[in-house]
């Protein structure tokens, strides 16, 4: 403290002077530090500035699963719709393969994250509609069955093995994969939205839609990178990019203090990076590509596709990181 | 059926940590990961997978009856924290394996032989109680001494408490006892004591209630805890609307733009 800042306190009577001595004694004993930077227990900061809720214990597999499940679930919708409307067989086949890859990878990620992986079957001993994780497990099982059937049916049909049965298997598989692909791509948003983590639960109504659109951007991107140029993919990619831009704008406008991890710190920058790569970047590239000759347009679309895929992956990591930061900042 | 509950009266707590020791001994809880934190005298800091009872040390300005009568010595408020055994428990609702169950004593019990360590209960608890043991792999929390209660014994922490700061009994009876205690404290001139009993909140009341002096939030006792299932409706609505929109959007995209190659 500089001399200029110090003003000698004035006392109206001896009792106040005596009380001042007591205060100095306490300050000297560091009982009531005047400019404390040490955490204390208070109504504002809770118990010694310690977090109220626990951080997620999930490892790197979980955000990756959110990404893979989102891409796989939306890819099965594209596969089903493409098949229904008679789009190119390559598109149908590629979309089904993305779904199958997701169906194979997802359980691997989920089981390896468990504290007791050998007990993964315990997930199937009960069904609890009030637990998004329980619902998600059954959705994933049904989705895996569907997409496996669709891929197997197509594979058998290509080799003329029991063609009628193969066609039936393919059809049923496509329908099941489509029906369960939608909840697979959305439930992960419900899963983290319905928790005690403030930055997640105050976005409970945003997250499922956000994750679905993010997954759509990723699956469309993967299909375009695999060489599919169907105009429908361009429109779906544009829709995803517009929605992700709107989500990003909504997050930036938020003023709720419990959403600070979505805007500040490393998690905030991750959300921003994921948002820009999923929203504005593909939006601009796709819009520009529409005014170009097909060959150059496809090149731009592939850049947009790559941007959306990376953006989707970063978005999932970012939301989990924001959950960690939010738990650390949680106070009563 | 019995409605077991804890009343933790921090005006009686002397911070001896006998409850922590008794809990660990009876339940064979491994040593917790204690390190010197440099915050107050409390290095345990919070409840966790290996800390099912935790005595909070709330330091404050010296006051008569609050950690000693000497004006030159730190005032200390102690409060033994424990799982709330909520009426509507976030962890119990979230658990996908059914490892977490409601017992005949209306407590919330985690069956270690079923838990597979998915960690969803950890983010579902509004009080930061249950946690995953990174070494063991499963989640753990206070069992409310389910084994002892079945044998008609009171929980270990309540039994060893030397000042009756931790009281065990029927919930309604303990609520009455808490009211009487507040009145008694008021008579003695202690007016800043209050009961933490979140009945009209998302958790619809708990089976562990507390009496603390001063700010309840300073003890990390939230005034309005929310159970995560409250967010389910808006989250699933969002999922359904988005899924419907995508279904229609995809159909329009393929029908409108066609599947033809450009």
Give me some keywords for this one:
heterodimer; A: 332 residues; Formate dehydrogenase/DMSO reductase fold; 2 domains; B: alpha+beta; Alpha-Beta Plaits; four-stranded mixed sheet; two-stranded antiparallel sheet; 7 helices; globular
Protein model, in words:
Chain A has 332 residues and is an all-alpha fold. Chain A has two domains: 57-194, Up-down Bundle (Formate dehydrogenase/DMSO reductase fold); 197-327. Chain A contains eleven helices and no strands. Chain A has helices at residues 14-28, 61-84, 89-113, 132-158, 163-193, 198-201, 207-225, 231-253, 265-278, 280-289, 294-329. In chain A, α2 runs antiparallel to α3 (89-113), α8 (231-253) runs antiparallel to α10 (280-289) and α10 runs antiparallel to α11. Chain A is elongated. Chain B has 262 residues and is α+β, with helices and mostly antiparallel strands. Chain B has two domains: 4-226, Alpha-Beta Plaits; 229-262. Chain B has helices spanning 18-27, 90-94, 120-124, 146-150, 156-160, 171-187, 232-257; strands at 4-9, 53-60, 75-82, 100-102, 108-110, 131-132, 139-140, 166-170, 193-196, 208-213. In chain B, a hairpin with a 6-residue loop joins β6 (131-132) and β7. At the A-B interface, α1, α2, α4, α5 and α7 of A face β2, α2, α3, β6 and α7 of B.
Question: How many domain regions of chain A?
Answer: 2
Assign a percent range to the helix content of chain B: 25-40%
| Main β-sheet description of chain B | 4 strands, mixed
CATH topology term of the largest domain in chain B: Alpha-Beta Plaits
The span between the termini of chain A is 34 Å
Radius of gyration of chain B: 23 Å
> What are the low-pLDDT stretches of chain A, counting only 5+ consecutive residues below 50?
none
Per CATH, the architecture of the largest domain in chain A is Up-down Bundle
Blueprint of the fold:
The complex is a heterodimer of chains A (332) and B (262).
Chain A: H1 14-28, H2 61-84, H3 89-113, H4 132-158, H5 163-193, H6 198-201, H7 207-225, H8 231-253, H9 265-278, H10 280-289, H11 294-329
Helix pairs in contact in A: 2-3, 2-5, 2-7, 2-11, 3-4, 4-5, 5-7, 7-8, 7-11, 8-9, 8-10, 9-10, 9-11, 10-11
Chain B: E1 4-9, H1 18-27, E2 53-60, E3 75-82, H2 90-94, E4 100-102, E5 108-110, H3 120-124, E6 131-132, E7 139-140, H4 146-150, H5 156-160, E8 166-170, H6 171-187, E9 193-196, E10 208-213, H7 232-257
Parallel strand pairs in B: 1-10
Antiparallel strand pairs in B: 1-8, 2-3, 4-5, 6-7, 9-10
